[in-house]
Fold:
Amino acid sequence: MVQLVRERIDAKGLRERIARPEDGAVVLFEGTVRNHSGGRTVKHLEYHAYESMALQQLEEVREEALRTHAIRDIGIIHRLGTVHPGECSMAIVAVASHRAAAFEACRFAVDRIKSAVPIWKKEFYENGAVWVEGDTMGL
Amino acid sequence: MVQLVRERIDAKGLRERIARPEDGAVVLFEGTVRNHSGGRTVKHLEYHAYESMALQQLEEVREEALRTHAIRDIGIIHRLGTVHPGECSMAIVAVASHRAAAFEACRFAVDRIKSAVPIWKKEFYENGAVWVEGDTMGL
Amino acid sequence: MALRVLFFASLADITGTSEVELEASPNVTIGAVFATLAARFPLLEPHRKSILFARNSRYATPDTPVQDGDEIAFLPPVSGG
Amino acid sequence: MALRVLFFASLADITGTSEVELEASPNVTIGAVFATLAARFPLLEPHRKSILFARNSRYATPDTPVQDGDEIAFLPPVSGG
Structure:
């Protein structure tokens, strides 16, 4: 399950949809919007995406995580539009029999998303806003 | 915050108590009871603890995680008593500015708890029950 | 042949548009499409090295050939998560 | 001197009790307390190597001296989480 949403991310709902009684470990990662960045107070962020491509790429990240880690399932939700400090911009839930795979797959997915999925954030301050640009060296 | 509880663990509540708007990454680990173990169907588990010592040890794990990882906070809840398949037996939430520390601290805490905190589980099957014994080599 | 070209995030700010329609000659590559647009939007050129290219929602390289009806996208370094 | 000795999990099953009161001579160690109890509960002995010791809710070693009023605990390998 991969999703782009414009409303608040329901991380608990994602966990409930993904986890089953045969799983022994659930790892949930939430990226949350920080109220400061580079010494400036952040009022909010705006997330934009190349949506059709972002969904395909998220699905590829999901499939690669399933292929390369001993997990049973992994789900990803990324939020788009305006997100305020303290709110969740991305949630990933990985479930597995054992914790090592769940931790590693979750981390793998975050790293891949941050380097390969066409989503961008703009930080809004008291005065002004800038597009944050990541590092694509790893791609 | 470390806790031993006898009712269902409220992982979302834990997350909400621990995370603040200055955090950028939230990692939640849930150990969940599997419905099978070594080829046998598990009806339920029973967790017992040396409670006074377990609380002290959990607090030490928490403090060690805070000392050795760049996290802002970490909270741990472990359940005692009867726990059914699919239910959460332990939840750990680590929050940090950046995800690497949150992932590593959470994993560190799980590993330490499983090797150092005086809690034991007994698995109950259709017929019979056994105490599970961990590996204390790492202590 | 007709192409649809998409600009995202900072590149849309630079060009002042998120989308242009482009008439291109056959057998052109994505790199050539970029050169054409960099001539029209000179502020694009300094970003060339960091831009990622996509063709029909898939990552592509500058030497990927384009076909009639393709959707070409220019992507600045991503920053989701 | 008077000690309280606690058995947990499988060790409580083996001894049939989770707690015993013990009268011990002064300057005795936890290892000596274990030996006394292994004589009373012979099924304990084979577990000696895997048992962890605690004194007043803190991990201790077999050569830790015990004092009057101490709570000594014998812990099988833990399996929480």
Notes: The mean pLDDT of chain D is 96. The first helix of chain D runs from residue 10 to 15. The domain at 2-75 of chain D is CATH 3.10.20.30 (Ubiquitin-like (UB roll)). The helical segments of chain D are 10-15, 30-40.
